[in-house]
């Protein structure tokens, strides 16, 4: 909500128009992936705050954190402007929570999506919506953290993603009104 105005989330938009669809994934598998993702996200968050005790971390999570650290170093992240913070554009009626908004060593901004399996195609549109809400052009990265300490990075450079993202928002709004 923004005052009295109900905002729609980025995930709600993408699900509504069928860009995100997990209906074919068995519920048990989806639940396990969600738990793993939540644990990895929390560990990355604590690491980015400098508050993670790596040695006391569950063994199965250590590789993911090593992959996250490698990604941060390889991409040249200087600092984080935002970490898991809600953002919104009241005029568009849109809200979301990007995993990270980073400042890179070249001074550019990047919006990041952290995954623990693979970077799905929908991340391009998801990150484009976050970029639109932020109101500035950003580099857009999806990073799949692997348990063996390697990140799998996908940079989304197609500027047409913004048009697709806004089209998805318009279709969602039309569906709600009709």
Detailed description of the structure:
The protein has 178 residues and is α/β, with parallel strands linked by helices. 43% of the residues lie in helices and 22% in strands. It contains five helices and eight strands, in the order βαααβββββαββα. It has helices at 10-16, 27-49, 59-75, 123-134, 161-177; strands at residues 8-9, 77-83, 87-89, 94-96, 100-104, 109-115, 139-145, 151-156. The strands form two sheets. It has a five-stranded mixed sheet with strand order 2-5-6-7-8. A three-stranded mixed sheet has the order 1-4-3. The longest helix has 23 residues, at 27-49. The radius of gyration is 17 Å and the shape is globular. The two termini are 21 Å apart. The mean pLDDT is 95.
Q: Indicate the radius of gyration in whole angstroms.
A: 17 Å
Number of strands: 8
Helix count, DSSP H or I runs of 4 or more residues: 5
Unreliable runs: none
Mean pLDDT: 95
Distance between the termini: 21 Å
Major sheet: arrangement of strands: 2-5-6-7-8
Shape assignment: globular
Q: Strand count, sense and closure of the main sheet?
A: 5 strands, mixed
- Percent of residues in β-strands: 15-25%
Structural class: alpha/beta
**Helix-strand pattern:** EHHHEEEEEHEEH
Helix content: 40-55%
């Amino acid at each position: 909500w923004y005052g009295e105005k109900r905002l729609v989330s980025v995930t709600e938009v993408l699900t509504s128009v069928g860009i995100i669809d997990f209906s074919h994934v068995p519920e048990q598998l989806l639940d396990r992936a969600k738990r793993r993702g939540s644990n990895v996200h929390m560990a990355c968050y604590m690491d980015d705050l400098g508050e993670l005790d790596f040695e006391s971390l569950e063994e199965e999570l250590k590789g993911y954190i090593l992959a996250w650290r490698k990604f941060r170093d390889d991409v040249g992240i200087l600092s984080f402007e935002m970490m898991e913070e809600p953002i919104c554009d009241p005029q568009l009626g849109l809200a979301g929570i990007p995993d990270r908004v980073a400042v890179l060593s070249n001074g550019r901004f990047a919006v990041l999506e952290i995954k623990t399996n693979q970077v799905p195609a929908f991340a391009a549109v998801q990150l484009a919506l976050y970029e639109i809400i932020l109101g500035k052009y950003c580099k857009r990265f999806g990073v799949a953290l692997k348990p063996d300490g390697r990140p799998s990075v996908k940079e989304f450079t197609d500027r047409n993603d913004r048009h697709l993202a806004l089209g998805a928002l318009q279709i969602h709004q039309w569906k709600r009104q009709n």
